[in-house]
Design a protein that fits this description.
With 145 residues, the chain is α/β, with parallel strands linked by helices. Helices cover 35% and strands 27% of the residues. The chain has 2 domains: 41 residues; 102 residues, RlpA-like domain (Barwin-like endoglucanases). A 6-stranded mixed beta barrel has the order 1-5-2-4-3-6. The protein is elongated, with a radius of gyration of 24 Å. It comes from Phycomyces blakesleeanus. Keywords: Signal. This is RlpA-like protein double-psi beta-barrel domain-containing protein.
């Protein structure tokens, strides 16, 4: 009887330790993914302006790919883009931009050296979906998709 009690106790202890190790691993994974999750769920606020890639900065964006004037792309502000001499981790990311009840999906393909944190420089095709080009500046919110 004493042997079976001891065996059950040892087996139970092994399960408890295995469970604790699994929980610790989940916490480590969660911490590693936390930054990505926060980045994706964060909404940024700023101003939207517009630019014509072929006339302002050239047809090759800071992220590398050529930019057509009618492409649904944006130039990300310098503070968030990071080093202007390197390709940003933001390059190629899809975002949803809103202005009131209007929204549009775009891809980050360039950098805007003059833009403040949260600001985006949009191609005319995107800007027109959110407001009038003659306005020149719109208040926007945006987040990663």
């Amino acid at each position: 009887m004493r042997f079976s009690y001891l065996a059950i106790l040892l087996i139970s202890l092994a399960f408890v330790l295995a469970d604790a190790a699994a929980v610790e691993n989940v916490e480590k994974i969660s911490r590693a993914q936390k930054t990505i999750i926060q980045k994706r769920s964060q909404t940024y606020s700023g101003k939207a302006t517009w630019f014509i890639p072929s006339k302002e900065g050239g047809s090759a964006g800071a992220c590398g790919p050529n930019e057509a004037d009618d492409a649904p792309i944006v130039a990300l502000n310098h503070p968030q883009y990071g080093s202007m001499s390197a390709k940003s981790s933001w390059c190629g990311k899809k975002i949803l931009i809103t202005n009131g009840k209007k929204s549009v999906t775009a891809t980050i393909n360039d950098a805007c050296p003059e833009c403040a944190h949260g600001d985006l420089d949009l191609t005319p095709v995107l800007f027109e979906k959110l407001g009038d080009l003659n306005t020149g500046i719109l208040q926007i919110k945006w987040h990663l998709l």
